[in-house]
Amino acid sequence: MSEFKSGFVAIIGKPNAGKSTLLNQFLGEKLAIVTRKAQTTRHRIMGILTEDNYQIVFSDTPGILDAKYKMHERMLEEIKNVRKDTDVLLFVMDVNDDLEENLELLKEYKTNKPVIFILNKVDTIHKKDLQELGEQITAAANPQRIISISAQEGIRTDQLIEHIVDLLPVHPPYFNEDNMSDRPVRFFVEEIIREKIFKLLSKEIPYHTAVHIRSYKDKETLTKIEADIVVTRETQKIIMIGKGGGMIRKISEQSRADIEEFIQRKVFMELRVKVRKDWRDSDIFLKEYGY
Fold it and tell me: Is the same domain home to 215 and 147?
């Protein structure tokens, strides 16, 4: 029997490269927000994949961006911390994105650990163009491996797992085999609500929004959740509530359905909208909201 392997694997790349989709594909569960909007992941989300002969502890990091607020600075700090503690680095690039920009980012977050360069959305590019991309990456960065996949369609993700396991050290598992994440259920409830806000509201409003679970109580027949949706302006609060409370009802109904599926229990949920003008630049509010 082969020796058990275990290690930490960081997933980094630009916003919208497909990092969260890839994590969800690996785990067969929806742990990370997936939308077409960039910069939807704000926290490091740890997902744990355990099989008979290996355990991979994935970290899905926020998309690499320019820091405009203290919140962004903390997101970038998370990426740097993850890089230090990782055994293998997965750098994810959308095949339709600018190669030079991605190579610059990879150089900026350089590590002495093995790097697998992932070309994502392979189903959207011609084979010849893909081959040229691979040659350019090898010449410029010489990563340990280059693999082309489609995280959305699950194309070659099994082979990617095999490549990762090859590079992991021999080590006993870090977590119990039943664990899927190091994050508490409350965190994922907040993420589910935040995802619905991204999907239901357009323009800049979701980027000004935080979700904070005020109360989470398991009753005999259901789970009661009270949550605050925090925005930066009064006008955003009006839009979030909607005419006759229509928008907040939609957010609540869609969130509740996903939360019930996630925790496998009936849910009663109460959402309130609060205005906190500068929460993204306030150390006090950032700490309260989990940043």
Answer: no
Specify the CATH number for the domain of residue 58. 3.40.50.300
Which domain, by its residues, includes 212? 185-288
Which residues have CB under 8 Å from 248's CB, separation 6+? Answer: 229, 240, 241, 242, 271, 273
> What is the DSSP track for 93-141?
EETTS-HHHHHHHHHHT--SS-EEEEEE-GGGS-HHHHHHHHHHHHHHH
Element (H, E) at 20: helix 19-27
Mean pLDDT lowest for which of 116-120, 147-151, 158-162, 276-280? Answer: 276-280
Collapsing DSSP to helix, strand or coil, 264 comes out as coil
pLDDT tens column, 184-220: 778 788 888 988 888 888 666 656 678 888 898 989 9
Report the distance separating Cα 185 and Cα 265, nearest Å.
13
Q: Global pTM?
A: 0.63
Clarify whether residues 47 and 160 are in a common domain: yes
Domain boundary among 134, 167, 200: 167
**CATH for 266:** 3.30.300.20
Classify residue 46: in a domain, yes or no: yes
- Rounded to whole angstroms, the Cα distance separating 137 from 120 reads 14
Q: Do 95 and 148 touch, CB atoms closer than 8 A?
A: yes
Q: Is residue 254 part of a domain?
A: yes
**31 within some domain:** yes
pLDDT tens sequence across 40-95: 444 556 788 888 999 998 887 655 444 444 444 555 565 556 566 789 999 999 99
Beta bridge partners of 210: 230
Taking all residues of the chain, what is their mean pLDDT, rounded to a whole number?
A: 81
- Does 62 map to a domain? yes
* Tokens 């990762």, residue located: 164
